[in-house]
Amino acid sequence: MLKNATQTQLNTTQVHKFGGSSLASAARFSAVADIIQQQDPQHQLWVVVSAPGDTTDTLLHIIACADDTVSRDQALTALQKQLQQLITAALPAADATEVSVKLKHWLAEVPDALTQKRFNDVLAIGELVSTTLLSAILRQRQLSATALDARDFLRLKRHQPDLTQSTALLSTLTLPGHIHVVTGYIARDEKGRSITLGRNGSDYSATLVGALVNATEVTIWTDVKAIYSADPRKVVAAIPYQQVSWHQACQLAQLGNPVLHARTLAPLSGTQTALRVRSSYEPQLPGCRVVQQVAGRQSFITELNDVTLLTLHSDIALSAERLALELQQPVISLPQQGDNLCWLLPTACAEQALACLADADIHAVWDTQRYCALAWLKGADPVLPAQADSVLQPHAVLHRYENEQQVIWLLARPLSSDVLQQVHQQLIPHTPSLRVVVAGTGNVGTEFLSMLMVQQKRLSTKVQLQLAGVLNSRQALLADNLDISQWQLLLAQSDSCCPQQLSAYLTALPEPKVLVDITPSQAFARLYPDFIAAGCDIISANKQGVTLPETEYLQIKRAGQFHNKQWLTNTTCGAGIPVQRTLQELISAGDNITEVSGIFSGTLSWLLCQFDGSKPFSDFVLDARQAGLTEPDPRDDLSGKDVQRKLLVLARELGISLELDDIRLQPLLPVGLENGSWQDFWARRSLLDAELAQLLTQAKAGGKVLRYVACLSIRNGSVRADVSLQQVSAGHALAAIAPCDNVFVIRSDWYNDNPLVLKGPGAGKVVTAGGLHTDLAVLVNQLTGKTKLPAVLT
Ligand SMILES: NC(=O)C1=CN([C@@H]2O[C@H](COP(=O)(O)OP(=O)(O)OC[C@H]3O[C@@H](n4cnc5c(N)ncnc54)[C@H](OP(=O)(O)O)[C@@H]3O)[C@@H](O)[C@H]2O)C=CC1
Ligand SMILES: N[C@@H](CC=O)C(=O)O
């Protein structure tokens, strides 16, 4: 934890920049203060901030209604209220007053500034609020922090930074040992007027400050976790790179990739300062470092939509990079053809570009056609795979340009996400790794691990399945890339671990990673939000998570949505039978489920099929346990609790708000036998045996069989849920089953008179471990770009 830096000699200098979305609320300011506080106290820290949330947009609106004093004053009052609420929520009253007084003063000056057309002074207010508030929060945490207005030192001459003057001015303001919190986005020009630094101006401020203070590293804290091989919102299999070379980052910026802009990179070009992109929402992740030297080249695809072409004579004294800096927009110089240069730039700034060129006496021809550009920045292998061209050809390719480092296609329309995924697969072939951590090494867990060894080999050309941990209630083997065939031996030599150690280990493990919970533990399921925050997808055979009280269940779901992680629970009802997926598919197709009923317990199905009175019922229970069909404690099956849980799993899948106790339960177990130790139960098993013998005799006398039946009915807005023992006649659909079969009878608007029936073994280590592997296959398919996110997520 960061303490007050009292040392006179601080090791290195770091700059951290936080954008508006990282500062959109009091909670976000506090999260940013946490990040700063957690930095190594040996570093001299500079923090560059944008305006909170959408404050700059509001200030632009106030400027736009400068002449309409009523609208202007209304907007000013609303802004004052909004920012005051932020300050009050972020600081105790005593500390808030000083910031509030400043805010009042800045806003009171706005009408005069507008009259005098000092619009940039108005825009500066957003950043002034952020620096003043954040430095006050840091001081409140006993850190020495000082707010700095960048206009007091940052000078630009003809739009170019005047580093000499800026450094000299800054040296008079620097306080050794202090954290300097600096306004991003604003500076002064050579005439002393306030200026703003345009789009992504605060990133530019951060690298300018980085250059002025000779920082070791500048970190841009944003909402992306890394620099990806493609836009991860469109290409699920996009690779998050942890290191990118400076040269390639510049190329990406020139191609208009939005993560880093050319102007942001410029001040650090040729310096030893590293640049890092990290997510302020997931500060535990390392992010991506842009470094001068990196072994090998990464490969990227990047799009730039709505662009147009300017053709110029090659003999001109202006470069595309220079024009891009003037326009603050990407200008891509296409490989030269003959005597002419072709520059590609956003259509929206074509006229401004022509005006800039005309000022420099340069004539350019604008063909006015609009294109969508797709660029491939080549990696180690520079040969364009023919297959990539074939994928693109049907999608209106108008031109293709290629040189040693990149290929650019100009298309008539944007590409769909599906096509981009295919192109990505062709151009950036990659065998992704998926790290698998397995909790629970009992009956099902052991089977899952032996199947994992087979899957690892089977899928080796598609994905590297890496076993990155195995644990049970006694021991934890937490190490990456384990030899699966050795897990038992290695686990036996391992110590136990506490939940905090497990979370810390999972956090440090590179993504993508999945935790497979094959324990029966409720305490373990309660840790899911932590595991998800650590970056894990979750696969559960454990039914405890899906049946927690609704508030906790929803907390896990929300954590998954927030961190974009999946929680796959296929085996929590019906083992490997795809009952949840069938329901999801029907619902997403527009069907309306009215009833799900049937046999949901493999154990009870097996017991009631096998029990013929030839030996006591409890002997059959032992056989079922031996066969790996029962819950770890078979009384969970006999009490009907396990079936009650499965019914709740399906109800929640259907979006019904229900708790376990809302489901009526008729236990198979005589009252009193459900509590106490297994030994107690075993000593009193004759009670169970007598009851079952009597029930069997009754059923046989009526020509019936015993079945344990669950029913969830949703009709006319009312929900009825019960699980009970029933006698069914020989011709009934639930009578003719194989021992251990589950039967799910689904009635819906589309399957009303004749229901949809799913039937098959509903328990056992092989089908359950197999079901867990079908969940794993969902993640593998996403990773390899085969499918988009399944309905499970939505
Ligand atoms: N059997 C089946 O047909 C089906 C089972 N399931 C579910 O699969 C899960 C596992 O069943 P099964 O393999 O039969 O059970 P087992 O009792 O054979 O194994 C349970 C494992 O979980 C471990 N464990 C228990 N608590 C914890 C904890 N807090 N932290 C870490 N590990 C823990 C146990 O550790 P230790 O070895 O130290 O005791 C053991 O290795 C259960 O939730 C069950 O409901 C789901 C569908 C079907
Ligand atoms: N004991 C359970 C196992 C699967 O969930 C059952 O028998 O259904």
UniProtKB/TrEMBL annotation:
So what does this thing catalyse? Answer: L-homoserine + NADP(+) = L-aspartate 4-semialdehyde + NADPH + H(+); L-homoserine + NAD(+) = L-aspartate 4-semialdehyde + NADH + H(+)
Q: Which InterPro entries match?
A: AceGlu_kinase-like_sf (IPR036393), Asp/Glu/Uridylate_kinase (IPR001048), Asp/hSer_DH_NAD-bd (IPR005106), AsparK_Bifunc_asparK/hSer_DH (IPR042199), Aspartate_kinase_CS (IPR018042), Bifunc_Aspkin/hSer_DH (IPR011147), HDH_cat (IPR001342), HDH_CS (IPR019811)
Which pathway does it take part in?
A: Amino-acid biosynthesis; L-methionine biosynthesis via de novo pathway; L-homoserine from L-aspartate: step 3/3; Amino-acid biosynthesis; L-threonine biosynthesis; L-threonine from L-aspartate: step 1/5; Amino-acid biosynthesis; L-methionine biosynthesis via de novo pathway; L-homoserine from L-aspartate: step 1/3; Amino-acid biosynthesis; L-threonine biosynthesis; L-threonine from L-aspartate: step 3/5
Q: Which residues form the Homoserine dehydrogenase catalytic domain?
A: 578-776
**Chain ranges of the Aspartate/homoserine dehydrogenase NAD-binding domain:** 440-568
Q: Would the keyword Cytoplasm turn up in this protein's UniProt record?
A: no
Q: Mind telling me what this protein is named?
A: homoserine dehydrogenase
List the source organism: Rheinheimera aquimaris
